[in-house]
Amino acid sequence: MSAMRRGPGRPRDEDLDAQILEATLGLIDADEPVTVGRIVARSGVSRAALYRRWPSLTALVAAALDVGREVPPAIPDDGDLREAVLGAFAAGNSVSASGYSEARFRQRVGLAMADRELQRAYWQSHVARRRVSLEDALRRGIARGILRTDLDPTACFDLLAGVVYYQLVVRGDSIDDPAVLARVRSALEIAWRGMVAEG
Asked: What is the pTM of this model?
């Protein structure tokens, strides 16, 4: 991704932010090259406005790819931890229902895999924060004696998320397919049994 200069600071205009993000997504969804010039032409926003809002084109693309995604809320301690955690990974059509389509997900994966800088930027600014509630729930599950004390919550999250990503990225399946959801749930249950404390 090409660099963008950082201009002098001014208050952000949320409407302009939305125009810029929408234009960027329009290029991504149309599978067109994403450049500052194309974003300016498509959004009607000046280059200076872009320069004031994002430190680089990579950061802008990462922000655009995250439009429609939300940070999951904290998981309460008074419910069924197993169902809360596994249900979060086996949610199926909850992604498309939230406005973040599977097509957008696949575009994100393709762009990130082709650009290591974008992949890292997207991880640091967006993905890492969406893991917090589930990792915290796993830590509390360990503290409450539900899960094994030797578990690494970060590794457990990677394991569970990997089940879903394998279906979408490696197998090329749709997460909305009932057979795929059943396979995901089965694999998640196997992983969970290995995480549960004995007795």
From this structure: 0.76
